[in-house]
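Lecture 7, part 2: worked example. A protein chain together with pyroglutamic acid.
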Amino acid sequence: MKALVTGFEPFGGEEINASIEAVRRLPARIGAVEIVTAGLPTSYTRSLVALEAAILRAKPDVVLCVGQAGERAVLRVERVAVNVQDSRIPDNDGAQPMDTPVIPGGPAAYLATLPVRAAVAALHAEELPAELSMSAGTFVCNHVFYGLMHLAATGKHRFRAGFLHVPPLPREKDAPSLPLDDIVRGITTILEAAGKDR
Ligand code: PCA
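Predicted complex, written out as structure tokens:
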């Protein structure tokens, strides 16, 4: 089994994005799962182009996209991607779409096809803070998650896919965060769970 795992470049004026830092530290293999990684720009116009190119290159069985979300110190296994773009802040190209669909005419939502509940249970078994999340927001992460699931549902190359939101790395006192090692272990645990459920 081959898995493509992606992380995002920093956004919103920050210098670090925990998602790409963690993805870069993944080993080349986790048990029977071969790991390929890619970085995505935090850009509405460029992210899905980069993701589709990485998928066509790697031809993975599983795709896990990872992004950073600042509000809580938990790993959020996303269940639902919605066909809505509504930006609180500009992306890295200065674009700030509001009230527009990711894909005009596409379904209102797609559901992750990775075993989300088993993934959360596996994370809890590793004593990592984790929850099943019903919304990946309406910014670039949801845009990529929706585009990913649309590709999985309609493209020629078939694969299972999902999205994980991770907290920022520890920096300011009292801000929600998770150490890098825990985030790497969390991603590894989800890929192991996906490898078991085939
Ligand atoms: N998080 C943003 C986009 C890139 C990232 O890492 C989001 O949650 O939409």
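The first strand starts at residue 2 and ends at 8. Residues 8, 11, 17, 19, 42, 67-69, 137, 139-141 surround pyroglutamic acid (CB under 6 Å). Keep this in mind for problem set question 3.
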